[in-house]
Amino acid sequence: MDWDAMRSRFHLPEGLIYLDGNSLGPLPAGTSERVRRVIEEEWGDLLIRGWNDGADGAGWMDWSARLGDRIGRLIGAPAGSVSVGDTLSIKVHQALSAALQMRPDRRVILSDEGNFPSDLYMAEGLIASLDRGHELRVVPPDAVADAIDDDVAVVMLTQVDYRTGRMHDMADLTARAHAAGALAVWDLAHSAGAHEVDVTAAGADFAVGCTYKYLNAGPGAPAFIHVRPDLIDAVRPALSGWLGHAAPFAFEQDYRPGEGIARMRVGTPPVLQLAALEAALDIWDEVDMAALRARSLELSERFAKAVAARCPDLTPALPSDVPRGSQVSFRHPKGYAIVQALIARGVIGDFRAPDILRFGLTPLYLGEAEVDAAVEHLAAVLERREWDDPRFRARRGVT
Amino acid sequence: MDWDAMRSRFHLPEGLIYLDGNSLGPLPAGTSERVRRVIEEEWGDLLIRGWNDGADGAGWMDWSARLGDRIGRLIGAPAGSVSVGDTLSIKVHQALSAALQMRPDRRVILSDEGNFPSDLYMAEGLIASLDRGHELRVVPPDAVADAIDDDVAVVMLTQVDYRTGRMHDMADLTARAHAAGALAVWDLAHSAGAHEVDVTAAGADFAVGCTYKYLNAGPGAPAFIHVRPDLIDAVRPALSGWLGHAAPFAFEQDYRPGEGIARMRVGTPPVLQLAALEAALDIWDEVDMAALRARSLELSERFAKAVAARCPDLTPALPSDVPRGSQVSFRHPKGYAIVQALIARGVIGDFRAPDILRFGLTPLYLGEAEVDAAVEHLAAVLERREWDDPRFRARRGVT
Known about the structure:
The structure is a homodimer. The first copy, chain A, is globular. The first copy, chain A, contains 12 helices and 15 strands. In chain A, α8 links the parallel β8 and β9. In chain A, α4 packs across α5 and α10 packs parallel to α12. The first copy, chain A, has 2 domains: 132 residues, Aspartate Aminotransferase, domain 1; 254 residues, 3-Layer(aba) Sandwich (Aspartate Aminotransferase, domain 2). In chain A, strands 4-10-9-8-7-5-6 form a 7-stranded mixed sheet, with helices on both faces. Chain A has a 4-stranded antiparallel sheet with strand order 11-12-15-14, covered by helices on one side. By secondary structure, chain A is α/β, with parallel strands linked by helices. Chains A and B meet through α2, α4, α5 and α9 of A and α2, α4, α5 and α9 of B.
């Protein structure tokens, strides 16, 4: 992989070191023009006809499936098993509600403390709404394997912990879930575009994810859902919107689920966001995921090692032998202020309550120079106690 | 109102007569530039900081509420009672699930045959998922008033029928629902931006709608939901996503609903679509809704009268004394092919199964000249039997 060439595919503000692509990926160079064309030449000139007759032959109506297939390639999902749309929280609800239907005699959703809170909140809301005595059981990440028992209907996990970067073994935990008669729902928010993923080899029953982090599809970019092909016919969508209907334009009075993954669609997909996603995926077509992973680990190790040497006050969030995603995290009681001071120096990392500093290190637009410079800035912030400044105390935070 | 000046605010393809703004409104002139700025100057340059520090002072995080307030003005909803995001189908689910929670002893969702199918499908999916013996009762539009009895938990209606244009009396039916102890959920998909709406005067408990029709926010534009202010504190969201949490960035393990309407947010909002919505709302700030309605009726009557005179084969979908929205519809067994033949002549109307030809007539960008020309084309298609052409037989249709 020619990483320098890859880097030229992104717009990166001059002088900024961006280690927060795991919150919001940067702007691919082709996005603005792609969205402009969809707005002016498709919406503007084709108007309603754009749904069926897009400028490139396929109308907007097909994009959820077409872009789903392109994401599928990055997560090991076969064509026709991924649909794009809505938000990740909605996709979590779809996966969970389908999984619970398939295990009507079981009452436990098992998750871990490293899961992203919205996944847990969606499970809570679903459980309260169903009112059938389900329980959300949340255990520490390393206790998940042993907590999978015969009461568990579904194991719902985010593969890579949004705070520490800790990576679960998807194949192993899925096999354990299946052995206990449970289903596995995997959230790939911090996996898709971060490293190699193979939902098929892992046997994942459902996988969901967002596209605004490593995939670089922009703020509020749509989510995706994968359903194991041999399960999809058994899914009776709880969010049974018209675009998931077998014949949306027959305007029948009763719902009939669409063929295959199409039933996971709900309402009208966000076309401008899909255009931005498409521009982002053009870059991914050229990425060798194994090379990406190797380079990501190289940069991560370089960063972790240098921080250990230069910033003794920062505690690694993970032991070095624990598998991790494409981020490196540390703990410090003044984490929030440190990140703010770092941002003031033009190095954008991220803070996650209560005390985590996290840094996304993706090879697409980062190299040794940025990694080394970031460490220098971090060391300076700590050595000079720059974080101890009233400007950096008030808390505001995002994504 | 200076309607000619208003018209110049839209991009309309040369030579096209667009009577389908009730499917997808046309492109406002300022949209492309507004979206470009958000992509290049906010996403591109601010990156993750765009969530809190937008170029215009307010970050993306506030847009769901800010744009909700601007839509609120068009539907008579007070500030702080409307939230933007997701799709209309999801907003229907939110309103329905909340309403059912508030009437735990009742089992009927009452709707009508004129409701948009997705609303009925979402009710079906919710009922199946709850599995507590709820029933979706669907009656003819004019039978709704008498069907509201003590079993009804919620009356769910689309104010303006997407096929015929028939308009329900929102205040009257809401009063009847309340008198019977039921709640009212109103879908304003064909109302918002079409005529004056006052959800407050009507006492509507919940109102939902989309922004890609009369509001002109573009393909896949987000939906909105209004909850009556005195009810919102009792809403425990079933779709309890993190952005509806009281403190999304505290990353607490348990869900606590956000203050007021903020709890109706679910996941990360689609920022590019919100930018397009904002550009569309800039136009609406200048529209006098009473003048819009008067002009809409003027154009509609002119159209209906001329069609009656020139196209005797077309049957009006509604008696002339029935209140209607900003559209005029007819029935014809060859409706689909007629609409296709009309499109081939550069007049875009819409077909709705089984036999409805519908024409949206909004004064924002249509005047007497277009109305008269459309009638001439329609008469020619019928007189010359242009619809009887193999090109116009295959069915494909959208939105």
